Amino acid sequence: MQSLPSRSVAVVLGTRPELVKLTDLVRLLGPAAHLVHTGQHYDEELSGRFLTELGLPEPTFLTGVGGQPRAVQISAALAQLDELFTAEPPLAVVVQGDTNAALSGALAANARGIPLLHVEAGLRSHDRNMPEEHNRVLIDRIADVLCAATEDNRANLLAEGIDDTRIAVTGNTVVEAVHGQLPDAAGRTALLGRHGLAEDAYVLATVHRPENTDSPEALRAILTELAALATADRPVVLPLHPRTRARIEAAGLTDLLAPLTVSAPLGYGEFLALARHSALLVSDSGGIQEECTVLGRPLVVVRRSTERPEAMADFADLVSPGAGIGDAARRRLAEGADGLARLAALPSPFGDGLASERIVSLLTAVTAPQRIAAAA
After folding, report:
1. For this structure, is 179 an active site residue?
2. Within-domain flag for 4
3. pLDDT in tens, 7-42
4. What is the pLDDT of residues 229-278, one digit of tens each?
5. What is the DSSP letter of 30?
6. Is 328 within 8 Å of 312 (Cβ atoms)?
7. Which neighbouring-strand residues pair with 356?
8. Residue 110 is assigned to a structural domain of this protein
9. What is the C-alpha separation between 219 and 212, in angstroms, rounded?
C-alpha cells in the first residue's frame, strides 16, 4: 500500500489459522507488511505448505518456540520480538486471535510503545480453563485498535469497560479467506473424484484441540462416535494432524480408526472444497465454526465451550465428547437436502468479505501521526 512505508507493519503470527485469516490483509498491505512467524506451528508439511499455497511472502522466523510449553513459547517469542522491534521498529503491529504468538506480539508492541491492532477482538468463551481465553482478554486490554468481527464481540468489549473509541466492527477476515481460497466448481469436482467421495454423501471431521487429544477418554469417545457414523454409503473422512495421530497411538486407540477414511493433513483450499460438499462437519476447531457459515454446511462442535456463539444460532451444535456427538450428527443428517439448502441460503454472521480492507484503513489511520512526524 503506497501510503505505508515498506516493512512498516509487523504482522506477528505463529499458527496455520492465523496464516489463513491474515492472508488477504498481508496482500493488501503489499510491501508494507513484514510477516513475522514465531514458529508456534511450523513444519514443512503443514505451515510450509500453507505459506506456499496462500502465496505469502517469506517471513522472518523466530527460533526455539515450537513444541515448547506455553510459558516458554511466550517468553522465547517475546525476547526475540523485542530484539527485532528494536532493530527494525515498525509503525504498527498486527496480531490475530488468541494464540501464544498473538500474545507475544501484543506484549512486545506494548513494551516498545508501538501501536497495536488486534484482529478478531472481543471473542469470549467465558471458560477460564482455556489458555486462549486468557490470551485474548490480555491482548484486548492492551490493544490500541480492536477489530471486532461482530456486534456481539463489540458488546463483550464494552461490557469489560473498554472505550468504544478503540473498537471497530470490521467483520471477520475468514469470509474473504474462504471466498479467495475455495476452488471453483470444476476444481471441487476433481478433488471429490480424487478422494472417491460423492457430493453431500460423507462426513468430514477434524480433531486437534488438547482438551480432546490429551485426554485418552475424550479421544476414545470422539473416535467411537465418528466410527459409529460411518457407513458404506456415507464415509467419515478424518484428515489426521501428526500430533493427533501420535496421541491416538500413545493411547492405544489405533483400532478405532479402522472404520474411518483417514487421510494426511489437507491444504486449506482442498479442505474447503471437501467441507463445501460434506453432508456434515464434526470438529473441535474454532475456525471451522466460522467457515461453515460461509460454506453453508452444518457442524457439530466437540468442545466444552465456544467463543463463537454466532455460529450456534443456525449452523452448529455444541456438544461434549460422548454420545451427544452421534445424537447431534444424526439430527443434522436427518435434515437431508432441505437442511443443506436452508443453511446455504443464510448469510454468514461474520460479515461481508471486506474486513481486510477496513483493517488496512484503520492501520493507515493509526500510523498517520508517526508518518507525518517522520516527513516533517
Report:
1. no
2. no
3. 999 999 999 899 999 999 999 999 999 999 998 876
4. 999 999 999 999 888 999 999 999 999 999 999 999 999 999 999 999 99
5. G
6. no
7. none
8. yes
9. 6
Residue 348, helix vs strand vs coil:
coil
Query: 148 has which bridge partners?
Result: 121, 169
Query: Domain tally for the chain?
Result: 2
Cell of 70: 506455553
User: What is the separation, in whole angstroms, between the first and last Cα of the chain?
Assistant: 21
Helix/strand/coil (H, E, C) string of 184-209? Answer: CHHHHHHHHHHHCCCCCCCEEEECCC
Owner of C-alpha cell 454409503: 233
Pull the grid cell for residue 126: 467465558
Same domain, 62 and 193: no
Question: Which CATH number characterizes residue 149's domain?
Answer: 3.40.50.2000
The shares of helix, strand and coil residues in the chain, as percent rounded to the nearest 5, are 50, 15, 35
Residues 219 and 145 in one domain: no
Find, among 51, 130, 72, the residue nearest to 98 by Cα: 130
- CA torsion sign for 135, 7, 154, 108 is positive
Q: Exactly one of 118, 208, 241, 277 is catalytic; which is it?
A: 208
What is the domain extent for residue 368? 9-173+353-375
Strand partners, 302: 319
Amino acid at 193: G
Query: By the 8 A CB rule, do 53 and 27 touch?
Result: no
